[in-house]
Amino acid sequence: MNYFPDFIPVHLQKLYFNQLLAQLNWRQDEIVIYGKRVSIPRLQAWYGEHNYTYSGLTLKSQLWLPVLTDLKLLVEQKAKQPFNVLLANYYRDQNDTVGWHSDDEPELGKYPVIASLSFGEERNFQFKHKLTGEKLSLPLKSGSLLVMSGETQAYWQHCLPRTKKQKLARINLTFRNICPV
Ligand SMILES: O=C(O)CCC(=O)C(=O)O
Ligand SMILES: [Mn+2]
Q: Is 160 a pocket residue for ligand 1 (Cβ < 6 Å)?
């Protein structure tokens, strides 16, 4: 795992945040849990060359936007690997979250590289080891890039917990590479 706290220069962070907020096709998606439809606690958007299915929800591919291809290129240069899809998450405030999961869908391959770019409010990203239960916490600051690779998805789950402290909006982009089987 590699963390680059100052990946996007400070003077560009607000610009990117505003462009992403205004231009992405943010949706309030619902998933089915124990037969019930539940709104997920964040907005999301999906771009790239493939559809994506999780928890009974299919995200249809949408054409890349210029702001996304710019960021994708920067991230690909740093991670030294190509990406062909993007899941974008918009956390409106401290109540928006993502629960414990691994990004280990078979179409991402055995040792997926996932590059996670953050803008806006800093939030704590947590990891939990699947066998030992060991926990780690990493504050993801605006403009930072976290590259998860190797056995990160195989052995660790991650989440972005709700906080009691009030938080402003945060946008996170996770670039992934789908290899159709
Ligand atoms: O918002 C984040 O930092 C992580 C989002 C995430 O884990 C995901 O979209 O799979
Ligand atoms: Mn994830």
A: yes
CA-only gyration radius of the chain, Å: 16
- Helix (H) or strand (E) run with residue 13 in it: helix 10-23
| Strand partners for 119 | 171
Tell me if 158 CB under 6 Å of ligand 1. Answer: yes
- State the architecture of 2-176 in CATH terms: Sandwich (2.60)
pTM of structure: 0.96
- Binding site membership of 152 for ligand 1 (Cβ less than 6 Å): no
How is the chain split into domains, by residue range?
Answer: 2-176
Inform me whether the pLDDT recorded for 55 exceeds 90: no
Confidence bin at 54 (pLDDT 50/70/90): confident
